[in-house]
Structure formats: C-alpha cells, structure tokens
C-alpha cells in the first residue's frame, strides 16, 4: 500500500511537471514588475538591476532539487543587491520609497519557502530564518535609519515565506503519519482476523476429530457384539465428518470472495447448540443443558463466541475425561450472560492428561473479544469448571 501511495505521488508529480516552468516564468515576470513599480511611480530597471533580477532568479530553477544551496546563493545575491545596488538620496529629508529594495526579497522568499516545505524540522526553517536576518542586518548596516522600515519589510516577507513552508511541511508529515497509522491499523486487523480464523479452524477440527475418534472406538467394539449399533456409530462418523467439512468450507470461505453466489454455511450460534450437543451425545458423552432467564438474540460476534466456548469446553472434557458427565448452564440476565461448563466429578480412569492449554487460551480470547471474561480451573470435588461472563447486547442494540 505504501508503494502504491508513493507511485501515486510520482504520477501526480509527472502530471503537473509541465506547470513548474510556467510558474517560474511567471515568477520572473513578477520580479520584473516589482522592480519596475515603486511607491513613487514607475522606474524601469536599468542594466544593473536587470542583471541582479536575472542572477537571483536563475538559481530558483533548481530550488526543488537543491533547496539549501539555492537559498544560500539567492540570499547572497540579494544581500549584495542591498549593499551596492540600492541608492539613497543624499538629502535625509527626501521621500524614500518603501520599495527601494525591490525585487528583494522575492528570490529569497521562493527559496526559503521551498526549503521549509521540502525539509522537515529545523533543517528546513532555520536557513530561511538566517537568510531573513541577513537581509535585515545588511539593510540596517548599509542604509541605517533611512531605510529601516524597508529593511524590516524585507525581513518580515522572507520570514512569512518560511512560515508558509513550515505549514506545508507539517501538513505533509501529518498526512504521512496518518497514512502510516492507517496501514498499521490495517495490518493489526489482518493479524487479528487471521488469529480468529485460526481459532475457528482449531475449534472445528478439535471438536469433530474428537467425536470421530470416540465413535470409531465405539464402532470397533460394537462390531464384535452388536453390528447394528456399530452401523449406527459409523453413520454418526459420516455425519460428523460431513459437518466438519461444511464448517471448514464456511471458515475457509471467509478468506475468498463470495460474490460468485456460492452459499456458505451460516456462522454457528446459540440456536445451533442442540445440534452441537447431539453430536457429543451420539459419541457417548452425557451432556445436560440448563437455561435460566429469557434468552435474547445476540450479535454475530458474541453469539459465535458463546458457541465456540461451549464447543471447546465440552471437546476438552470429552478428550481429557472420557465418560465423565458434562453440565452446561446458560444463565440469561438483562445485561449479562453467565456461561458454565462443568465436569461435576473427578477424572475418570481414562483421563488423558492436562493437554497444551491452547484450548483454554482460545476460549479466554474469545470471551475477551466479545467484551467479557473467562475463568477455568478444578472444582473442590475434583472436577473441572469453565465459567464465562458475556455482556448482553441484542442484535438491534449498540453496546453502551
């Protein structure tokens, strides 16, 4: 994206490159007009003043490539102009034109503005301020009080050009900083989305593979004792693998453009908990669900978080404590949903160890992403308990 912005800037520079020569020529015309028109009337420039105008203007043609060097050259030329090119009437009571220095400081103004606009910070504005002070100092030193007001006018004009350049530079820096912040935010959102999709893939695979593994063991045992029940178990395996493929297709489908009209499986939520728990029950897990309060329709993000937390918690219970019952509680309140998944008894002899704890980390992240919290740990009776608190905002109600 940064490269695209840079390329766009270069394209604009090429598009308007024809305007710079035209502007430079108009600026030269303006310098000659300024050198001609003075407070007391028209005074057409002679060869000496014409030479000073051209010598101070020519370096400006390279000011965008060598801004500091050009400022130094034109400031020197205009200092020399003030020192030897400006004549003061010998009579101190004579009317002295305010524009006696003209076209000074037009060249210094253009160079100082360009440097301050192109170079950020002190390196951009300090040389322009120094050039302004040089014009003021030479005017006072050579012409004293007679042209004091004119010296200050030249100083003020050059200083105003520096200030205008600083404003342009600050705006450019602010735009670049905002663009950098935007790119950083986009990259953060991309990483967060990848993590979320990875969590979805982990939950889907862990859940369905655990069920398939359990059902395969049941089918292997029943083949020798009850072929009809073994056939039911094999059909459950087929159903779980088909559902796993559907969910994987829906999750991976979020990574591509769905504008081709290919329908994707809806994001799972609390309204699909019955189907989820039936899959566990078909694998032999005793799962009970207790709901209190008045359920409401949650936004997609919170609804998915509740579904995935229950899915992961029951999957962990089935994997690490096979045969142990699982009790699920959904306690709806006006502003909060309390979720509990509990193994009320200690580990069965088939306990398979504590695992990697990646599932607990994923559940906690889902709860935090939904605006809530999650805690997990052993119970006093030797079982295991997962509790989550999710703030309730209906699909039509924005978060407070």
Short description:
By secondary structure, the protein is α+β, with helices and mostly antiparallel strands. It contains eleven helices and seven strands.
Give the overall shape, derived from the CA principal axes. Answer: rod-shaped
- Uncertain spans: 1-8, 257-264, 348-354
End-to-end distance, in Å? 35 Å
Order of SSEs: HHEEHHHHHHHEHEEHEE
Q: Give the averaged pLDDT, no decimals.
A: 78
Number of domains in the coordinates? 2
Number of helices: 11
Label the structural class.
Answer: alpha+beta
Strand order of the largest sheet: 3-4-5-7-6
Beta-strand segment tally = 7
Q: What fraction of the residues are assigned to beta strands by DSSP?
A: 5-15%
Helix proportion: 55-70%
How large is the radius of gyration? 40 Å
């Amino acid at each position: 994206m940064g490269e695209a912005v840079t390329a766009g800037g270069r394209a604009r520079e090429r598009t308007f490159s024809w305007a710079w020569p035209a502007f430079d020529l108009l600026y030269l015309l303006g310098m000659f007009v300024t050198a001609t028109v003075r407070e007391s009337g028209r005074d057409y420039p002679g060869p000496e003043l014409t030479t000073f105008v051209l010598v101070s203007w020519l370096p400006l043609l390279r000011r965008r490539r060598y801004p500091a060097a050009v400022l130094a050259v034109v400031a020197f030329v205009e200092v020399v102009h003030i020192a030897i090119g400006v004549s003061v009437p010998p009579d101190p009571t004579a009317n002295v034109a305010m524009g006696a220095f003209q076209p000074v400081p037009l060249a210094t103004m253009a160079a100082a503005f360009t440097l301050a606009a192109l170079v950020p910070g002190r390196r951009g504005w300090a040389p322009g301020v120094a050039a302004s002070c040089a014009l003021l100092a030479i005017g006072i030193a050579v012409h004293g009080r007679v042209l004091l007001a004119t010296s200050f006018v030249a100083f003020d004009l050059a200083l105003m050009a520096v200030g205008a350049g600083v404003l342009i530079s600050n705006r450019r820096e602010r735009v670049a900083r905002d663009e950098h912040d935007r790119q950083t935010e986009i990259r953060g959102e991309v990483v967060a989305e990848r993590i979320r999709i990875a969590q979805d893939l982990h939950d889907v695979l862990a859940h369905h593979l655990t069920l398939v593994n359990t059902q395969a063991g049941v089918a292997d045992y029943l083949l020798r004792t009850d072929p009809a029940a073994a056939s039911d178990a094999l059909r459950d395996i087929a159903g779980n693998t088909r559902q796993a493929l559907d969910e994987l297709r829906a999750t991976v489908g979020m990574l591509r453009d769905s504008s081709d009209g290919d329908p994707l499986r809806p994001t799972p939520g609390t309204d699909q908990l019955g189907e989820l728990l039936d899959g566990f029950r078909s694998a032999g897990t005793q799962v009970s669900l207790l709901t209190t309060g008045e359920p409401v329709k949650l936004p997609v993000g919170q609804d998915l978080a509740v579904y995935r937390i229950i899915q992961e918690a029951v999957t962990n219970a089935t994997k690490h404590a096979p045969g142990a019952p699982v009790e699920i509680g959904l306690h709806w309140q006006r502003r909060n949903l309390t979720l509990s998944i509990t193994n009320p008894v200690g580990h069965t002899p088939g306990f398979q160890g504590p695992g990697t704890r990646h599932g607990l980390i994923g559940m906690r992240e889902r709860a935090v992403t939904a605006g809530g919290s999650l805690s997990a740990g052993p119970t006093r009776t030797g079982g295991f308990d997962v509790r989550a608190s999710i703030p309730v905002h209906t699909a039509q109600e924005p978060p407070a």
